[in-house]
Every structure is written in structure tokens, then in C-alpha cells.
């Protein structure tokens, strides 16, 4: 036998019945995005490497350590499997001049790729759902985007806020503008240089290239020196503080609790002003389920005319783990009916009848005949019951000779046989609705 080929480590198959839960999630996202006026955009999985180097920052973990990059053997171009969604959306909006007629509200979904050690909820191929609002600079858009996420959590059944009953908590911060960050950066460097002996190797490497990222360290030994570091919010000017307070005022008015986290910096260099994360304490170390913020300089940075932007990305794998932990994932869908066939010669009439039922909105699963002809009635009914269908459609020789099909309830209790009825094949549209859930 040939050697069995397996999937790449950290890149997983999505199999039934788990795939049904992902479909349920996708449908919830579409409903919420539609209600908020967002349009769907799909960008390529492969982009020029320069897009992420320029957009995310050369000294970010993603660019330095995690990107899947390669050289195109046809023309020598440097290409990368996208590690996140925002840069590609901004590139598409800029390339196609989508802001020519005003701002845009866009959302996307799809696989992303990062070369890191696979662990639960963190994989080399993972999936994101995200939204980007471009062309609008006001704090109202930041707040509306956060409230959109609360609407999605509600749609999924997740309780948000503080306390034992909550599954997600909102954390909020402002990164200010460039000059404010530069002043804060200088203060950070001075602080960490004064405590250089307490820094780990990664922090020392970042000290002069990207000191803000030291604040995001997960090293417990460094927490005291990080907690004592200067806070960016103390360097914010009047305009940045006004923007941040306006976002907070909307969230307060909407009754959405949050924590101001002065150490929240996010992992990409393109952020400014508002940044936020939705976090949970129910998934261990993988606590961030969704993150985002404002990136007003990114469009210009990627070659477009200056335009503001703000967005978020949801880690779908982590969110699905949280929904499973909360007991909110739906059971796999069952067909409305299961077709039991006793005569191979009846197959043409059976398939015509099933086609009419499906056109009327009924989901029907046909028991396969196989090369040896129909299986026994006992075997077919066993499969019908296991399918979860509410009804069996029995296409027996006598019923078909009379132009009928027997309709047998499968979920009505011990006296289900008494409720069996005959239905005409010529008038399927008249009774097809009886097979649908109430």
C-alpha cells in the first residue's frame, strides 16, 4: 500500500458534524453584518510580502518570526500567505479606489497563516472574521464597531460583561497619535534601560526597535517592571483624550461595561487612537478572542491617499472553543425526512418525488440502493432513525402502483405507527409543508 499522506501539522481538516457548527456561526455573522450595513469583501490568500512588512511593521513578531513567505518560481516575486486580514483589505480598497465615492463598511472571512507552535485554539492555518470601516475618522465609528461585536455575541448567546456569568469582557485603551507615542517611547526606553538587568532576551532585543511590544510580554518575571513603566495615556494630548472619552461615552450610554487597560497595545504597528480586545478567562492562556482598533495612517502607508480606518478580527477557532465551553453550539442538523425504497425499479419515480419535495424546501436523505439493490426494511429504518429525521417516506411497490407514498413519523413516540398516512405523489406541493418544523 502507498504511504498515507497526512495534513500539515497545525493545519486541520474541518469535518462533520463540527462543520455544521461553523456554518451556524457563519450565518449568524452574515445576519449581524447585514443589519449593520456591512458589505462582504474577499481578498487573495497570497499577497506581496512587502504588504505585510510595510503594513504590520518589520519588527513585529508576525513579520520577524511567523510569516509563510516564499519566492515565486516564475518571476522571483516575494510572496506571503496572509497572516491577518486588515492589510489585504486596505490594499484592495486602495488599489480599486473604493473610497472615491465615500467611506466603506466591509467585512471578510477566511483562512490566515502563521508559522508558530500549534496548540489548542492556536494553529498554523486559522480562520478570522473581520470588519473594516474606512473613510470615517470619528469616535462614533469606533464605538459602533464595538457595539456591533456585542450584537454578535448576543446573537451567539454569549453573555458579556463582568462577573461569574460572563464569558467575554471588553478591554479598551488609546494609543494616541504619532508624536504622543514617540514621547511615550522615549520614556519607555529610559525606564527599561534603567532596569536592563530585569529584561529577558526578547525584551532586550526589542528595547530600541519596538519598546511598546515589551508591554505585551507574557513573561511573569517581567510583570513588575512592566507595571511600573510609564503609561501611554499620560502622554495623550487634548484631541486624543477627547476621541477616547467620546468612545467611552457611547459605551457607557449603551450600558456596555469595559476595563481601561493601559498595557493594551495590540500586535501590529499600524494602530493609533482606540484599541480594544474581547477577552475570556475560560480558555486558559488563549484569552483574546477578538481584537482591533483604529489605523488612520495605514492607507497612506500602503500607497493610497490619506484616509482613516478602524476594524477588528475574530479568531474563529478560539471563539468556537468558547461557544463549546458555554454549551451554545447547536446539534448537527437532521433531515426533515428519510426516503426508504423497497424496489430498485421505482427509482425514477422516487427521485422525481424527492426533487419536488426539495424544491418545496424539505430536506430529504435518500437511502442508497447500492449495487445489490435495496437493503432490508429493518436496515433502512435503522438508518432513518439514526439520521435524526422526523419522518420516513416509504416508497413501497404497492404505494407507488397507487401513485402514493407512505408518510411515517419517527419522533412521535411508541404509537407512531398509528399516525402513518398515505400521500399522493401527484400533489406533493400540497402536503410538503407537513414535513417542515412548525
Automatic annotation (TrEMBL):
<keyword id="KW-0547">Nucleotide-binding</keyword>
<feature type="binding site">
    <location>
        <position position="128"/>
    </location>
    <ligand>
        <name>L-histidine</name>
    </ligand>
</feature>
<dbReference type="InterPro" id="IPR041715">
    <property type="entry name" value="HisRS-like_core"/>
</dbReference>
<protein>
    <recommendedName>
        <fullName>Histidine--tRNA ligase</fullName>
        <ecNumber>6.1.1.21</ecNumber>
    </recommendedName>
</protein>
<feature type="binding site">
    <location>
        <begin position="84"/>
        <end position="86"/>
    </location>
    <ligand>
        <name>L-histidine</name>
    </ligand>
</feature>
<feature type="binding site">
    <location>
        <position position="132"/>
    </location>
    <ligand>
        <name>L-histidine</name>
    </ligand>
</feature>
<keyword id="KW-0963">Cytoplasm</keyword>
<dbReference type="GO" id="GO:0005524">
    <property type="term" value="F:ATP binding"/>
</dbReference>
<keyword id="KW-0067">ATP-binding</keyword>
<dbReference type="InterPro" id="IPR004154">
    <property type="entry name" value="Anticodon-bd"/>
</dbReference>
<dbReference type="InterPro" id="IPR036621">
    <property type="entry name" value="Anticodon-bd_dom_sf"/>
</dbReference>
<dbReference type="Pfam" id="PF13393">
    <property type="entry name" value="tRNA-synt_His"/>
</dbReference>
<dbReference type="InterPro" id="IPR045864">
    <property type="entry name" value="aa-tRNA-synth_II/BPL/LPL"/>
</dbReference>
<comment type="subunit">
    <text>Homodimer.</text>
</comment>
<dbReference type="GO" id="GO:0004821">
    <property type="term" value="F:histidine-tRNA ligase activity"/>
</dbReference>
<keyword id="KW-0030">Aminoacyl-tRNA synthetase</keyword>
<feature type="binding site">
    <location>
        <position position="266"/>
    </location>
    <ligand>
        <name>L-histidine</name>
    </ligand>
</feature>
<dbReference type="Pfam" id="PF03129">
    <property type="entry name" value="HGTP_anticodon"/>
</dbReference>
<dbReference type="InterPro" id="IPR015807">
    <property type="entry name" value="His-tRNA-ligase"/>
</dbReference>
<keyword id="KW-0436">Ligase</keyword>
<dbReference type="InterPro" id="IPR006195">
    <property type="entry name" value="aa-tRNA-synth_II"/>
</dbReference>
<feature type="domain" description="Aminoacyl-transfer RNA synthetases class-II family profile">
    <location>
        <begin position="1"/>
        <end position="348"/>
    </location>
</feature>
<comment type="similarity">
    <text>Belongs to the class-II aminoacyl-tRNA synthetase family.</text>
</comment>
<feature type="binding site">
    <location>
        <position position="114"/>
    </location>
    <ligand>
        <name>L-histidine</name>
    </ligand>
</feature>
<dbReference type="GO" id="GO:0005737">
    <property type="term" value="C:cytoplasm"/>
</dbReference>
<keyword id="KW-0648">Protein biosynthesis</keyword>
<dbReference type="GO" id="GO:0006427">
    <property type="term" value="P:histidyl-tRNA aminoacylation"/>
</dbReference>
<feature type="binding site">
    <location>
        <begin position="270"/>
        <end position="271"/>
    </location>
    <ligand>
        <name>L-histidine</name>
    </ligand>
</feature>
<dbReference type="InterPro" id="IPR004516">
    <property type="entry name" value="HisRS/HisZ"/>
</dbReference>
Amino acid at each position: 500500500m502507498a504511504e498515507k499522506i497526512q495534513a500539515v501539522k497545525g493545519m486541520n481538516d474541518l469535518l462533520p458534524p463540527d462543520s455544521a457548527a461553523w456554518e451556524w456561526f457563519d450565518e449568524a455573522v452574515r445576519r449581524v453584518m447585514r443589519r449593520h450595513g456591512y458589505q462582504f469583501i474577499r481578498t487573495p490568500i497570497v499577497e506581496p510580502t512587502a504588504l505585510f512588512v510595510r503594513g504590520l511593521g518589520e519588527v513585529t513578531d508576525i513579520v520577524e518570526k511567523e510569516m509563510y513567505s516564499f519566492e515565486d518560481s516564475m518571476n522571483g516575486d516575494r510572496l506571503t500567505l496572509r497572516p491577518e486580514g486588515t492589510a489585504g483589505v486596505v490594499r484592495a480598497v486602495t488599489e480599486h479606489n473604493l473610497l472615491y465615492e465615500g467611506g466603506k463598511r466591509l467585512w471578510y472571512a477566511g483562512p490566515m497563516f502563521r508559522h508558530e507552535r500549534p496548540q489548542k485554539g492556536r494553529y498554523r492555518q486559522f480562520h478570522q472574521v473581520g470588519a473594516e470601516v474606512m473613510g470615517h475618522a470619528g469616535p462614533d465609528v469606533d464605538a459602533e464597531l464595538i457595539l456591533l461585536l456585542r450584537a454578535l455575541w448576543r446573537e451567539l448567546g454569549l453573555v458579556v460583561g463582568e462577573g461569574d456569568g460572563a464569558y467575554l469582557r471588553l478591554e479598551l485603551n488609546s494609543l494616541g497619535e504619532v508624536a504622543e507615542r514617540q514621547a511615550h517611547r522615549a520614556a519607555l526606553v529610559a525606564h527599561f534601560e534603567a532596569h536592563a538587568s530585569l529584561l529577558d532576551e526578547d525584551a532586550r532585543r526589542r528595547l530600541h526597535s519596538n519598546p511598546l511590544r515589551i508591554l505585551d510580554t507574557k513573561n511573569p518575571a517581567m510583570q513588575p517592571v512592566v507595571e511600573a513603566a510609564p503609561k501611554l495615556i499620560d502622554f495623550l494630548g487634548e484631541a486624543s483624550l477627547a476621541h477616547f472619552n467620546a468612545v467611552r461615552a457611547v459605551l457607557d450610554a449603551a450600558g456596555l461595561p469595559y476595563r481601561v487597560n493601559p498595557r493594551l497595545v495590540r500586535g501590529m504597528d499600524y494602530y493609533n487612537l482606540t484599541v480594544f480586545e474581547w477577552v475570556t478567562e475560560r480558555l486558559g492562556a488563549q484569552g483574546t478572542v477578538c481584537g482591533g482598533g483604529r489605523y488612520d495612517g495605514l492607507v497612506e502607508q500602503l500607497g493610497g491617499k490619506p484616509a482613516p480606518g478602524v476594524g477588528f478580527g475574530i479568531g474563529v477557532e478560539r471563539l468556537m472553543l468558547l461557544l463549546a465551553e458555554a454549551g451554545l453550539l447547536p446539534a448537527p442538523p437532521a433531515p426533515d425526512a428519510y426516503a426508504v425504497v423497497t424496489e430498485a425499479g421505482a427509482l425514477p419515480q422516487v427521485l422525481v418525488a424527492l426533487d419536488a419535495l426539495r424544491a418545496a424546501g424539505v430536506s430529504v436523505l435518500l437511502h442508497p440502493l447500492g449495487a445489490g439493490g435495496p437493503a432490508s426494511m429493518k436496515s433502512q429504518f435503522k438508518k432513518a432513525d439514526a439520521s435524526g429525521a422526523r419522518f420516513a417516506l416509504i416508497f413501497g411497490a404497492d404505494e407507488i402502483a397507487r401513485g402514493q407514498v407512505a408518510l411515517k413519523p419517527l419522533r412521535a413516540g411508541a404509537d407512531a405507527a398509528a399516525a402513518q398516512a398515505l400521500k399522493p405523489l401527484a400533489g406533493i406541493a400540497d402536503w410538503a409543508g407537513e414535513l417542515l418544523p412548525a
